[in-house]
Amino acid sequence: MKIGFLSSHGGSTARAVVAACAAGELDATPALLISNNSASAVMRWAAEIKLPRLHLSGAAYADAAELDAAILKSLRAHQIDTVILSGYMRELGPLTLSAYKQRVLNVHPSLLPKYGGRGMYGDLVHAAVLAAGERVSGATVHQVEAGIDEGPIVAQSRVAVLPDDTVASLRARVQASEGPLMIQALGALSAARETPAC
């Protein structure tokens, strides 16, 4: 399985998946990083580990359809089988979603369907969880469809919300669960693809 990542900032899930592949914990090959942020930490990291990387953003493609086509062309050129969104702060276009139907995974920092959808990302999710007095939060890996944070749930991890939690402390614990959760989901996906249908 050849994996392509789309990421906008730090790419913590991408880093965890690459480390799992390098350690032999996951039978997959990281093959491409696409970022819409040329100055992001994830782009510097990809350069350090010599992971092929591309900057594709609205700066070069003002038209969303052109950006969508460029992303799809790049994924195909690198023979990507599975796409992972690792903090990618843009919506994928219909061309890419159609070509990679059921093969695009996103990790979201809540137990979807709670605290998902437009405007629910990053620290805004954790702030909403704390404001609501939730006792449990977590992370969700789901297949990506046209709606934001929609699509079938693949795996979830639960994280206790502590009485003295802040946005930063809750974020740290949820984020620590995201990489292992994605690795688990990819392992199951890889095994399912290798199992012949009856």
UniProtKB/TrEMBL annotation:
Pathway: Purine metabolism; IMP biosynthesis via de novo pathway; N(2)-formyl-N(1)-(5-phospho-D-ribosyl)glycinamide from N(1)-(5-phospho-D-ribosyl)glycinamide (10-formyl THF route): step 1/1. It comes from the Bacteria. It comes from Deinococcus detaillensis. GO terms for biological process: 'de novo' IMP biosynthetic process. The active site is at H108 (proton donor). InterPro entries: Formyl_transf_N (IPR002376), Formyl_transf_N_sf (IPR036477), GART (IPR004607), GART_AS (IPR001555). This is Phosphoribosylglycinamide formyltransferase. Keywords: Purine biosynthesis, Transferase. Residues 1-186 form the Formyl transferase N-terminal domain. Belongs to the GART family. The keyword Transferase applies. (6R)-10-formyltetrahydrofolate binds at N106. Catalyzes the transfer of a formyl group from 10-formyltetrahydrofolate to 5-phospho-ribosyl-glycinamide (GAR), producing 5-phospho-ribosyl-N-formylglycinamide (FGAR) and tetrahydrofolate. It catalyses: N(1)-(5-phospho-beta-D-ribosyl)glycinamide + (6R)-10-formyltetrahydrofolate = N(2)-formyl-N(1)-(5-phospho-beta-D-ribosyl)glycinamide + (6S)-5,6,7,8-tetrahydrofolate + H(+). It is an enzyme of class 2 (transferase).
